[in-house]
Amino acid sequence: MSIEVRGVTKKYGDFVALDDVSVSIPTGQLTALLGPSGGGKSTLLRIIAGLEVADGGTVEIEGTDATALPPQRRNVGFVFQHYAAFKHMTVAKNVAFGLEIRKRPKAEVKAKVHELLELVHLEQFADRLPSQLSGGQRQRMALARALAVEPSVLLLDEPFGALDAKVRKELRDWLRRLHDEVHVTTVFVTHDQEEALEVADEIVVINGGRIEQVGSPDDLYDAPANDFVMGFLGEVTVLDGHLIRPHDVVVHTLPAAAGAGAVRGEVVRITRVGFEVRVAVRPEAAPEADEVVVTLTRTFARSLGLEVGSTVWLEPEDGARVVPVPRAVPVGTLGAADPTEPSEVPVA
Amino acid sequence: MADSRLIRSRRGPVTYVLRVLVVLYLFLLVAWPVSLVADRAFRATGTHEGGVGPFLERLTDPATVYAFNLTITVAIWAVIANTVFGVGISLLLVRYRFVGRRVLSVLVDLPLSVSPVVVGLALVLAYSSTQGWFGGTLETIGIQVIFSTPGLILATAFVSLPLVVREVVPVLEEIGTDAEQAARSLGANGRQVFRRITLPSIKWAVVYGVVLTSARSLGEFGAVKIVSSGAEFRGETATLFVHNHYQAFDEPAAYAAALVLVLISIIALVVVTYLRPKEERA
Ligand SMILES: Nc1ncnc2c1ncn2[C@@H]1O[C@H](COP(=O)(O)OP(=O)(O)OP(=O)(O)O)[C@@H](O)[C@H]1O
Ligand SMILES: [Mg+2]
């Protein structure tokens, strides 16, 4: 294990930002710290980097106890959400900073800077100032700057958070490829579950200062440990008192085909979103409760001949993951649930 | 940045009336009296000759040279002290949270609101060898504060204390700590972070503060008047020189020195105006 966090607690006044957090980050992997805003992701990352001091617990990096080490002696690369560019230095000088601090020979610094700028595709911008770069370019510069000192771990705090969706997606793929090339142990913070699922080898879900679950993207998606993880990693709907993914609900138009436990309901809305169709069904047994949302492919929906007002029978697909509904759950009707503001929908 | 929201686009009669009033006000209060000083510096009066030659002669008189030398010495030390402490205090105020931080912030502003005469009196109370708390102690080790150059420096530094701090604090607040933390994580220690990251970012604010401090130091009168014996060749600064010669009916010498002080201020203003846009671009 490259990073071992044991029993870390951090308080701001009375507020507990991290509550006895323990987690192991595997060597050479790309790990995502995923969670809602205010969950404590940045705090944990900054404690690992030494930019924040924990109230209790230990941090071990590459086998050495780093708890009391100042940031400059931890050999970590840190990339900030808002680039933290050195505005008065050129791109090349920014990247060279860590090497110059370490008093490396000039020729070596030059060669290394060139190599890194090539790696992040900024060769032609070496002599520009950060203010003359786009957001994405600035972030790549920050990444090159952090990589220059050959850190044992690379920590990225919402590296693409300040960028627009398209650039974000590009950089995300690029980060994945970069990681496959350089293989440095990397931890990145995100509150975008799609980003985490797509890029990470391992995901640590953190919420309210606690770790909810650690696992591979598939583990987390298919076998969420609790309702929070399930709700945070993808869209959920409530069927018969259980949380279930909308694409795991089977729709029957005839009672004969449905099993004994199927829920009978009426189609109240059909929305087409690109390649899929979302069908909202009001269960007959509990008409005042929230609607069940089912997603189907467009062809399948058409073959069923669904219309608003038709009666359908719903049941979970074989092997579908369901989680009992707690008191208040984040229920997504369109798009992924946003657990930062759980909607207090009463559930029958 | 020129913010168009701050500029009225429509020009009604009110705009013109305002303009005339402002120009008139500035003229009557500043431009006209100051131009009279320039005029007087070169004009012949009574037994005194006018023109450039006598003007230069008055400025090269040993007493005048002494006064300006003293003023410049005092100003340089006051500027050095206030730059070093100003940057230090600014860092303390912005980057650290401690008990009494607000009190410190208010204390830094105090010299702006306290009359310089009061500052002078306070310094005499604290440092004079006869009645001061530790003026006596200092005198036994050979340092006389009041009625000598250290006292002048102290008084000048006191009145110009806030100028660097008030320039640097907002810039420090604006740049935030991200870059400094990034530098730390890249291996820089505290000194390296300050020299390579913080200082370059606040450079223009410091320069601006230094210019303001210099201008203020050269022109200080009230506090200096109290802590200096004020006699020719013995603690007579340029402003005291102007005052003394004016009182002694040697008006041409007073006007000549006054004009030099005005010119220095104007140069300082020009430098500042030239620096301003640079600072905003940075
Ligand atoms: N310096 C501070 N003083 C007081 N409270 C703080 C401080 N820094 C963070 N917090 C609190 O600690 C909690 C966790 O903050 P943290 O920055 O780790 O959240 P996060 O998970 O990174 O959220 P985001 O996705 O919005 O960045 C938040 O509730 C925040 O208000
Ligand atoms: Mg954060």
TrEMBL record, chain A:
EC number: 7.6.2.9
Keywords (A to Z) from UniProt: ATP-binding, Nucleotide-binding, Sulfate transport, Translocase, Transport
Ranges for domain ABC transporter: 3-233
One annotated Gene Ontology cellular component of this protein: ATP-binding cassette (ABC) transporter complex
Gene3D superfamilies named in the record: 2.40.50.100, P-loop containing nucleotide triphosphate hydrolases (3.40.50.300)
PROSITE patterns the record matches: ABC_TRANSPORTER_1, ABC_TRANSPORTER_2
GO molecular function: ABC-type quaternary ammonium compound transporting activity; ABC-type sulfate transporter activity; ATP binding; ATP hydrolysis activity
SMART domains recorded: AAA
Name of the protein this chain belongs to: ABC-type quaternary amine transporter
Natural source organism: Nocardioides zeae
From TrEMBL, chain B:
InterPro entries documented for this protein: MetI-like (IPR000515), MetI-like_sf (IPR035906), Sulph_transpt2 (IPR005667)
Pfam family of the protein (one): BPD_transp_1
Keyword Amino-acid biosynthesis: no
SUPFAM superfamilies from the UniProt entry: MetI-like
Alphabetically ordered keywords of this record: Membrane, Sulfate transport, Transmembrane, Transmembrane helix, Transport
GO terms for MF: ABC-type sulfate transporter activity
Membrane-spanning segments: 16-34, 66-94, 106-129, 141-165, 201-219, 253-275
Predominant cellular place of this UniProt entry's protein: membrane
UniProt-annotated location(s): Membrane
Membrane topology: Multi-pass membrane protein
GO CC annotation: plasma membrane
Start and end residues of each ABC transmembrane type-1 domain: 68-272
Coiled coil segments of this chain: none
Function, as annotated: Part of the ABC transporter complex CysAWTP (TC 3.A.1.6.1) involved in sulfate/thiosulfate import. Probably responsible for the translocation of the substrate across the membrane.
Assembly notes: The complex is composed of two ATP-binding proteins (CysA), two transmembrane proteins (CysT and CysW) and a solute-binding protein (CysP).
Protein name as annotated: Sulfate ABC transporter permease subunit
Annotated source species: Nocardioides zeae
